[in-house]
Write a structure and sequence with these properties.
137 residues; alpha+beta; 5-stranded mixed barrel
């Protein structure tokens, strides 16, 4: 009985410690933005840094600022308030899930998974990141 209780406790601890990490994919949003800030690096260094991350899958969350839907794709503009933004946005999420994108509301917190595609530094110090092939979780 004591062995069973210990095994349950170890399993619960293991699940608690590892489950949050398993739910997040790829580099954290804030960590990536900090690496891509132009104040910290030359343009050549930024290019090399981006090469290390482009194409990686990430799972992030943020607040919906705007949604634009087209015939094949939707662009969801998202704000992560932990970092500077450019015109109220710092993440552009591109998805083919037009139905789910059309249901999103301004101010709604969303979670999404997608592939890092591009980034841009702005004069105000903000960095916007573009995500492709996203799905809303």
């Amino acid at each position: 009985m004591l062995a069973l209780t210990r095994m349950f406790a170890v399993t619960a601890l293991f699940t608690t410690l590892l489950l949050p990490a398993a739910q997040a994919a790829g580099i954290a949003y804030g960590a990536l933005v900090d690496q891509l800030r132009i104040e910290n690096k030359t343009k050549a260094e930024l290019k090399e840094t981006w090469k290390k991350h482009k194409g990686q899958e990430v799972t992030w969350s943020g607040t919906v600022a705007e949604v634009n839907t087209g015939k094949k794709n939707a662009k969801v503009y998202v704000l992560d308030s932990s970092r500077k933004n450019y015109k109220g946005v710092n993440i552009q999420v591109n998805s083919r899930d037009l139905e789910r994108a059309a249901k999103l509301k301004r101010g709604q917190t969303i979670r999404f998974k997608g592939t890092l595609h591009n980034f841009k530094n702005h004069d105000n110090g903000a960095v916007t990141i573009s995500i492709r092939n996203a799905e809303f979780l």
